[in-house]
Amino acid sequence: DAGVTQSPTHLIKTRGQQVTLRCSPKSGHDTVSWYQQALGQGPQFIFQYYEEEERQRGNFPDRFSGHQFPNYSSELNVNALLLGDSALYLCASSPGPRGSGNTIYFGEGSWLTVV
Amino acid sequence: GNSVTQMEGPVTLSEEAFLTINCTYTATGYPSLFWYVQYPGEGLQLLLKATKADDKGSNKGFEATYRKETTSFHLEKGSVQVSDSAVYFCALSDGVTGGGNKLTFGTGTQLKVEL
User: Of A29, A48, B37, B53, which is least surrounded by CB within 10 A?
Assistant: First the structure.
């Protein structure tokens, strides 16, 4: 049973460019969330997708957008990259968007460096 | 809004020492509480969770009890090993108003265990 898988694992982009990160949720999970973890900090919630729609959003600008596909996989897009966007981007999946007791599984993350 | 406060690290202990990492929270409603662990260069792994007051989560010798009266969820282990060296994150998930499965994290506590 594959867990949450993310790609790419590492990438380097130039300021002003755009990046797309990809995530496949754990088998049986239909809800995907994205988090940004800056160095030395805890993860910060970006947004959550369920039934191909954005259901919740954290305090991130519109440069951060996403998409969920019919097979529940998801993409995170960041436009007009800033140096401050350098971080580990974590994808998390869960069986449904509600129910605070659900175990949320995380992928290994995508390390983004903006130069 | 929701928030999680953890004791600052790094925490350095000798092998077989007793570990406590303090965590307190502020939340609306009745959150579920989690401890996640992050080993160097890896994503987050769920260590344990508790979904209601007075519940005790436990795993791999680690324990934490959900204390509603003190809004705390302190992590403990009776005898740490070198392999426990990692960053530990306390988190909550608030099921009120459909906010389930959105995690709010603390800043993390780095634990270093020495021989």
Answer: B53
Judging by beta carbons within 10 Å of its beta carbon (0-12, 13-18, 19+), is residue B93 exposed, middle or buried? buried
Q: What is the CA angle A41-A47-A48, rounded to 5?
A: 125
| pLDDT tens-place string over residues A41-95 | 999 999 999 889 998 899 999 999 999 999 999 999 999 999 999 999 999 998 8
Residue in chain A lying closest to B91 (CA)? A42
Q: Mind telling me how many Å the CA of A8 is from chain B's nearest CA?
A: 14
Task: Kindly tell me if the per-residue pLDDT of B97 is higher than 50.
Answer: no
**Closest residue on chain A to B42 (Cα):** A108
The CA distances from residue A7 to A43, A89, A112, in Å, are 18, 10, 11
Main-chain dihedrals φ then ψ at residue B83, nearest 5 degrees = -70, -10
Q: Residue A33 and residue A53: Cα distance in Å, rounded?
A: 11
Full 3-state SS string of A92-114: EEECCCCCCCCCCEECCCEEEEE
Measure CB to CB from residue B102 to each of A4, A56, A109 and give the nearest one.
A56
Phi, psi of B12 (to 5 degrees): -115, 125
Interface test with A, best of B5, B52, B102, B105 (most A CBs within 10 A): B102
Minimal Cβ distance to B103: which of A45, A101, A107:
A45
Mean pLDDT across B21-47:
90
